[in-house]
């Protein structure tokens, strides 16, 4: 016996209506996109034609167009400076002397000539607001550098985006990255492949924990926004929230002893979403 599913006519009409609406929206969007593309193509053709017949330079030709004038005005109103600051302004040249001068060994031993010769590399400051460049300038201005070449990065996240430790790890510094989310620590390990064993003295450690005022456990709210990265330690009233996990908590004293943090080290970076001061 064969059964045939009968769809009520009202449902069929509704289905046809939905399909028609989807088709109409698709056609309208295609027309809009094609119109915009054609507009820019014809604009480009007009500019090239004007440039080839006017005898003016390309910049002078572009300057006669309102859109270009608006772009230039926005650029002159801090736009160009901010663009340069966040691109070319973040570039630096790294070589053995740059990295070696970050410690006091050079000044004690007076043996620049014994440094191994390597090809210099161009680095890019990946920190949020150019902190790495500021730190480098400050360190290089110091006459004495008694600190260990170590970065302690609390709230390290993926170890790359807006990181204050990534560039120094590139330079051969040791680092202790503290991050309560295991998924982000795994990303950090992958982001540091090829950077963490440059010489026998370099040690990069990954610690899944939060640093607080006690040893034990803390509740951590996991932000759904992986770009904003605003996960944070929370109080008791949010205990039942499904976005909260339990993580290991280390006091400063326990952390320093367990991971052998020296008294004088180069950089302490803290980004703990509300717990920074504490």
TrEMBL record:
Highest taxon listed in the record's lineage: Eukaryota
UniProt cross-references to SUPFAM superfamilies, sorted A to Z: S-adenosyl-L-methionine-dependent methyltransferases
Membrane-spanning residues: 21-42
Keyword Manganese: no
Matches recorded under Pfam families: Methyltransf_21 (PF05050)
Domain Methyltransferase FkbM, first and last residues per copy: 153-276
InterPro entries associated with the record: FkbM_mtfrase (IPR006342), SAM-dependent_MTases_sf (IPR029063)
Keyword match Membrane: yes
Gene3D superfamilies tied to this protein: Vaccinia Virus protein VP39 (3.40.50.150)
Keywords: Membrane, Transmembrane, Transmembrane helix
Protein name: Methyltransferase FkbM domain-containing protein
């Amino acid at each position: 016996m064969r059964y045939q599913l009968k769809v009520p006519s009202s449902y069929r009409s509704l289905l046809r209506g939905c399909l028609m609406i989807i088709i109409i929206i698709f056609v309208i969007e295609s027309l809009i996109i094609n119109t915009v593309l054609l507009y820019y193509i014809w604009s480009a053709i007009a500019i090239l034609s004007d440039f080839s017949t006017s005898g003016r330079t390309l910049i002078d030709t572009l300057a006669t167009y309102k859109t270009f004038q608006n772009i230039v005005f926005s650029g002159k109103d801090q736009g160009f400076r901010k663009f340069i600051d966040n691109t070319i302004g973040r570039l630096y040249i790294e070589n053995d002397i740059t990295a070696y001068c970050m410690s006091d060994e050079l000044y004690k031993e007076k043996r620049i000539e014994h440094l191994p010769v390597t090809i210099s590399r161009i680095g890019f400051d990946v920190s949020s607001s150019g902190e790495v460049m500021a730190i480098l300038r400050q360190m290089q201005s110091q006459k004495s550098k008694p600190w260990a070449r170590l970065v302690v990065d609390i709230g390290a996240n993926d170890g790359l985006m807006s990181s204050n430790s990534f560039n120094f790890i590139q330079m051969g510094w040791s680092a202790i990255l503290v991050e309560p989310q295991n998924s982000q620590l795994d990303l950090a390990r992958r982001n540091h492949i090829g950077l963490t064993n440059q010489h026998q003295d370099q040690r990069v450690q990954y610690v899944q924990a939060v640093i607080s005022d006690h040893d034990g456990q803390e509740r951590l709210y996991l932000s759904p926004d992986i770009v904003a990265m605003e996960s944070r330690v929370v109080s008791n009233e949010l205990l039942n929230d499904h976005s909260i996990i339990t993580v290991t908590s280390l006091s400063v004293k326990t952390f320093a002893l367990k991971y052998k943090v020296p008294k004088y080290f180069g950089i302490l970076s803290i980004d703990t979403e509300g717990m920074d001061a504490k």
